[in-house]
UniProtKB/TrEMBL annotation:
The keyword Heme does not apply. The chain crosses the membrane at residues 6-23, 204-221. CDD domains: GDPD_GDE4. Belongs to the glycerophosphoryl diester phosphodiesterase family. It catalyses: 1-O-hexadecyl-sn-glycero-3-phosphocholine + H2O = 1-O-hexadecyl-sn-glycero-3-phosphate + choline + H(+); N,1-di-(9Z-octadecenoyl)-sn-glycero-3-phosphoethanolamine + H2O = N-(9Z-octadecenoyl) ethanolamine + 1-(9Z-octadecenoyl)-sn-glycero-3-phosphate + H(+); 1-O-(1Z-octadecenyl)-sn-glycero-3-phospho-N-hexadecanoyl-ethanolamine + H2O = 1-O-(1Z-octadecenyl)-sn-glycero-3-phosphate + N-hexadecanoylethanolamine + H(+); N-(5Z,8Z,11Z,14Z-eicosatetraenoyl)-1-(9Z-octadecenoyl)-sn-glycero-3-phosphoethanolamine + H2O = N-(5Z,8Z,11Z,14Z-eicosatetraenoyl)-ethanolamine + 1-(9Z-octadecenoyl)-sn-glycero-3-phosphate + H(+). Residues 315-334 are annotated as: Disordered. The lineage of its organism: Eukaryota, Metazoa, Chordata, Craniata, Vertebrata. InterPro entries: GDPD-Related, GP_PDE_dom, PLC-like_Pdiesterase_TIM-brl. This is LOC100125107 protein.
């Protein structure tokens, strides 16, 4: 009687070969997604290191530095106004221990004079603009700009109002639904399924599981964007609240598991863009490009612009002898 391995090994071998082939050629099973924008330069909260986060002044500064995507966060006031703000409670940003949902828009306090950069402790931003803008103001000011709108709270009224604004300004294809929470993302999708979405935290973990089991090439993905942190910034510029997330061994393990060029290339071949956040040093910008990421999210738009210009200048110089050079990917503006 033959051992079960006699039958199992050929099956597993065939599975591994098929999985690898489809990982490299996903178009055989999946239609490529087509986002109408490509993002290399992404401004986190509008560029929170150079101007106060999520202010119109910050967004203007990001635009002047040729950003490809504005990242922002929203909450809703007591009188139903959609406000651009990262935090629901305003203590960190204003010094007032009050939540946006408990006050009207007119009652919102001003930002602090100097605000510490969340992903670069010890560094502060300032500027002339201390006002919390309305999301509608941002849409009006930047009608053609791709915007990543993160919804942090499971608030149906907020989701509906954001969706209504997106539809009113005819920007469904240029506005990304973003949230780390599955219930929130479900609300967003139900309210406006025409908007592209990012992977939630749970879906991101599932993505890794599918990749390492070889199942990823066979599974359809509804997301158009993967936004994730680069583990190597933990304990340097990013300090998670959870102590276990700061464990050195776990940081090392995450780096090995997450920063896989093969995974990023497979997603990109399926039309899914990969963004790494929040990077504020040239060495981290370089690491992100070496890992194969599409976009870099930063608090320093001018710093990233200069880095990308040098990077692409070096590429052109290095390729000069071989003829004309095209941009790294479609849509590069550097």
């Amino acid at each position: 009687m033959r051992s079960p391995l006699y039958y199992l090994l050929p099956v597993m071998g065939g599975y591994a070969v098929t999985s690898y082939y489809l990982l490299k050629n996903p178009h055989l099973l999946h239609k490529r997604k087509k986002l109408p924008f490509y993002c290399r330069h992404i401004s986190h909260r509008g560029g929170a290191g150079e101007r106060r986060e999520n202010t119109l002044e910050a967004f203007d500064n990001a635009m002047s530095n040729h950003t490809d995507l504005l990242e922002l966060d929203c909450h809703i006031t007591k009188d139903g106004k959609v406000v651009v703000s990262h935090d629901l409670n305003l203590l960190r940003q204003t010094g007032h221990d009050v939540s946006i949902c408990d006050i009207t828009y007119e009652e919102l306090p001003l930002y602090r004079e100097h605000l510490e950069v969340t992903f670069f402790p010890g560094h502060y931003s300032s500027g002339s603009d201390r006002r919390f803008p309305l999301l509608e103001e941002v849409f009006q000011r930047f009608p053609h700009m791709p915007i990543n709108v993160e919804i942090k709270e499971e608030t149906p009224e907020l989701v509906k109002k954001v969706s209504d604004l997106v539809k009113r300004y005819q920007r469904s294809e240029r506005t990304i639904w973003a949230s780390e929470k599955d219930p929130v993302m479900k609300l967003c999708q139900e309210e406006n399924p025409d908007m592209p979405i990012m992977f939630t935290a749970r879906r991101g973990l599932m993505l890794l599981l599918l990749f390492y089991t070889g199942l990823l090439p066979f599974v359809p993905l509804r997301e158009s964007v993967l936004e994730t942190y680069m583990p190597s910034i933990i304990n340097r510029t990013y300090f998670p609240h959870s102590r276990i997330m700061r464990n050195r061994f776990l940081v090392f393990l995450q780096e090995k598991l997450m920063m896989r060029k093969g995974l990023f290339q497979h997603l990109q071949a399926r039309g899914i863009q990969v963004y790494l956040w929040v990077l504020n040093q040239d060495s981290d910008y370089q690491r992100a490009l070496e890992s194969g990421a599409d976009g870099i999210m930063t608090d320093y738009p001018s710093k990233l612009r200069c880095f990308l210009q040098r990077h692409e200048g070096a590429q052109r110089a290095g390729s000069g002898a071989r003829g004309p050079v095209t941009a790294d990917r479609q849509g590069s503006s550097y």
